[in-house]
Amino acid sequence: MFGIALAIVFCIFCSVQAHFPDDPKPCKYGDGECIMQFVNTLFSERFSEEDPGLNLMQLDPLKVDKMVISQGEGESPVSITLTFTDNLLYGIKDQRIVKVKGFGKDLTTKHELKIVSKTFSLVGPYNIQGKVLILPISGTGISNMTMANVKIIVSFSGNPLEKDGETYLDVTNLKFSMKPESTHYQFSNLFNGDKALGDNMNVFLNENAEEIYKETASAIDRSFSQMYLGLVKGVFAKVPYAKLFAEE
Ligand SMILES: *[C@@H]1O[C@H](CO)[C@@H](O)[C@H](O)[C@H]1NC(C)=O
User: Fold this and answer.
1) C or N: which end of the chain has fewer Cβ atoms within 10 Å?
2) What is the percent of the chain with per-residue pLDDT over 90, rounded to a whole number?
């Protein structure tokens, strides 16, 4: 579940980037409706079976090399270190942008994307240590964390960056927040493979999924916005801002 934003932004922007250098430019500065339609269309075309030439299928599932969710400040009832390594994130192809703000001629204004996704599943090896609502938890195995009806907001502002006579948007102040309607956890091999304990813990986690998500949300958002920042920065560093949009 934690690889979602990364995937979204990566996919959207790699599509856009691959497409933008061609004239005519698809959208005017600040035309959020056009930008949304354009990116969504591009996105669904590139993931459709009818277009095997374009290589986006390999992005769903997306490889997530490593993600660490470390949470446990203050009085929080959830205090865990959860590490995912070599996971796969499924569901990227079904996400859509629902609102775009910013991207006007003045690149220093706030830019914002609202994105929705039907489901996201992060599947692969995990390691967890800590405490969840007073119960100790530990284990190493395979996990599947699935989120349904996820709403994501990504915002950032831009600094003008001059390079070889062109102006680029340098991404700053990136903020990321993600809200799933529901979350489902499945951890195999908890407690060194003690099946009774492990089964009970999985039931317990799912009965308390909403509470657990709430407690870990800011840690999740934090680890995400870092990855995100690198990716979004990379995209805007490649294409001069004036090449992205058409004049009024
Ligand atoms: C992960 O769990 C979800 C929901 O329980 C399920 O639909 C999905 O098939 C699982 N994914 C994998 C790869 O096992």
Assistant:
1) C
2) 44
- Of 3-12, 19-28, 65-74, 215-224, minimum mean pLDDT range: 3-12
Q: Is 121 in the pocket of ligand 1 (CB under 6 A)?
A: yes
Element (H, E) at 37: helix 32-47
Amino acid at 161: L
Q: Which mutation among 63, 146, 182 tests ligand 1's pocket best, with the greatest number of atoms within 8 A of CB?
A: 146
Instruction: Answer whether the bond into residue 240 is a cis peptide, omega within 30°.
Output: no
Q: Give yes or no for residue 66 having a pLDDT over 70.
A: yes
pLDDT digits (tens, 9 = 90+) for 125-148: 999 999 998 899 999 999 999 999
Instruction: Name which of 48, 47, 49 is nearest 8 in CA terms.
Output: 47
Measured CA distances, 233 to 105, 127, 136, 159, 228 (Å): 18, 30, 39, 11, 8
Measured distance CA(219)–CA(175) in Å, rounded: 13
Instruction: Give the number of the atom of ligand 1 that is nearest the alpha carbon of residue 123.
Output: 13
Q: What's the fold here for domain 8-244?
A: Bactericidal permeability-increasing protein; domain 1 (3.15.10)
Note the pLDDT of residue 46: 66
Which atom, in ligand 1's list, is nearest to the CA of 144? Answer: 1
Distances (CA, A) of 187 to 2, 4, 82, 144, 164: 15, 19, 11, 7, 51
